[in-house]
Here is the input.
Amino acid sequence: MPEAGADALAATGVADPSLFHLLEPKWLTARARLLADERGRGARFAVLAVFGALFWAFVYFLLYRLLNYFRGVEEIGPLLAGKLLGLILIGFFSILVLSNIITALSSFFLARDLDLLVSGPVDWLKLYLAKLLETTVHSSWMVTLLAIPMFAAYGRVYEGGWWFPLVSASVFLPFLIIPAVVGSAVTLLLVNIFPARRTRDILSVIAVLAAGGIVLLFRLVRPERLARPEGFRSLVDFVTVLRTPTSPMLPSEWAARGVMSWLQYRLDYLPFYLLWSSAAAAVVIGALLHRAFYLKGFSKAQESGAHWVRGTALRRFGALVFRPLSVLKRELVLKELRVFFRDTTQWSQLILLGVLVVVYVFNIKYLPLHGDGMTFFLINIVPFLNLVLAGFVLASIAARFIFPAVSLEGRTLWLLRSSPMEVRDLLWAKFWVGTLPLLILALAIVSVTDYLLAVSDFMFAVSVLTITLMTFAVAGLALGFGTMFPQFDTENAAQIPTSFGGLLFMMASVAMIGGVVILEARPVYSYLSASMYHTDPDPVEMWLGFGAAALLCVGCTLVPIRIALTRLSAVER
Amino acid sequence: MIRLKSLTKRYGSFTAVDAIDLDVPRGELFGFLGPNGAGKTTTLRMIAGILRPTGGTVEIGGVDIDKDPMAAKMKLGFIPDRPFIYEKLTGAEFLRFVAGLYDQEGPEVEHRARELLALFDLAEWQDELVESYSHGMRQKLIISSAFVHRAEVIVVDEPMVGLDPKAARILKDLFREYVNRGHTIMMSTHTLEVAETLCDRIAIIQSGRIRACGTMAELRQGAEGGASGLEDIFLKLTGENAARELIEVLNA
Here is the structure.
């Protein structure tokens, strides 16, 4: 027990390990990973650096232009900038709390080094601080990377001066600490109520529901209306709304106020004081909670809840539906389905997917497609571009569900490799289990949005056929890249899509979607022109364009799977 | 039944298995011994078709595993040293899945699965997800999976690790009976007592090469200095210095 151990050590005058010592393995692991002499590391780093720089530049210039525009608006300009910062930070805060809750479960209760640390003479406070720091770093790095170009744009537009980076950091650091402590404390209390395995399931569902709820609420209130003062009764009303703090009790509001006070040369110390004192108080309260509940929770986390599954109904259903398949193929498909639907962290993401689709359809519904300036072409081009967006949605879903499929076999590959099973059967089972639901979703999105947009029969047919072929291609690319860049040893399935291979898959998908749209653009344009001027479209142009697009999709489906087949056959594990 | 010809595995400049020749006939329980890192697991994983040899061949029942992997693997069951299996399947589902990989299903498979689960005291757990199984229970389930499809040859890496005394005894009896029925088992183990009492023949491997191979009587005969037990023979062949340096280590 850490407490007893620490007390005993204090009594004997032996120093227990320092906080730095507890963090050393993490630092050494990170350094070893950084210095590892892997094949293609340079290229990997270069691609990541280029993409990172491009992303930063994109965020920076987007905000820069927006803030410059705000700056030109007298009186309400700074109010708008402050409101925007508050909105961004409240988004960050919600993400941070959720991500800390999930991360804290791993770092405080399920990490492999805990047996060693809890059984060793480690002081409870140091254990808490080490794990809190680990949780904070793991759940905040992405938000921090996003915040850098954001603060840079604010500092540049409002001439924050040389001290502005320091001011931003002094605001942002406590802003990161508070959700980390809150998230860890929520997890601590939950683990004390439920066994850890159940807690993980419950947490993943709660987190996904909450994230979905936030996205949905944010979208349904249509914040873009804020940028259109004509929607308000008078300018006074509009300014009043802008002046009212959105959430005065939240650290996001304090951080926004602190930053804006510096940028408007009216430095207000209160937000800084509130942020730092709250962060310090949070750490103290968190530590006290940790002292009171951690050991009980940790002990409970070792217990596993019973998971009784009869599965007879699914077996009968599987035997009926998959009857045409051979025994081997049927068992492979059933195994894929069982593993997916019994893993809460996997299926719960379907909720997020549902939200994404609702938001997407909602956006299409509120597109301002009627009124002045809306030509026949513009109305018909929108459903065509809709394909591009639907393609991106499909690619991100495939990255989450199909791309990791082979990596997740890593530890059980011994069984598949030593049995008389063709690697081809395994890959095709994974392909179909991933592709069919994706296809149903794709057709639903495109049909509903086309219906809302009231497109012509021709555009409807083009959309449906294109999205079908695109779905196969996206699934083929996901499976192919997932096999070419496997993450066999990862413990967290959620990290697989964000790996280097995941990035390459997304790039390849974007290129494929772009290619298909470019190839189809000419025949679509020619058809629309012809129908506008009541002439016949050029059949050669039509066949060439659509044929090339179809060929590209078929190629993107089959070639990656073929490469994956060779790669997986050569894997030695 | 298992024939290795000049079987070699190199990782860069390191040779893990160095031109091994071995013949294990039908109906034999063959023991494969050696210190840690000697090349046992690498050899067994090459026989199971998981690792591809750098040189040489592996034949299972006369079929070259490299030339016709499906036919060779159809005769084979493999039990690895680390029991990694699908966490989200139940014990019964896992056995059904493995039988399916060998194109087997139906009442006979169900019957065998039930019998095996009962034999290893897993019947009560058959409808529970593997994620809640202990290390020993997982090991028992993997052992059952190698028997559920009636493999002609079973290759086992460290079968006794994590098993309770009762399960270990059951496994020894099961292995013996299986071999008596004309099947073949090749197993690696660090438990010398098990190898001595159970195996028909034993090979001792070190640094990727077979140092000795034969029945216990042949090994005794071959060992210089009158070593009688397998432990003495093993230490003689693989180096005794570790024991000699103990005092220096403890005094350090």
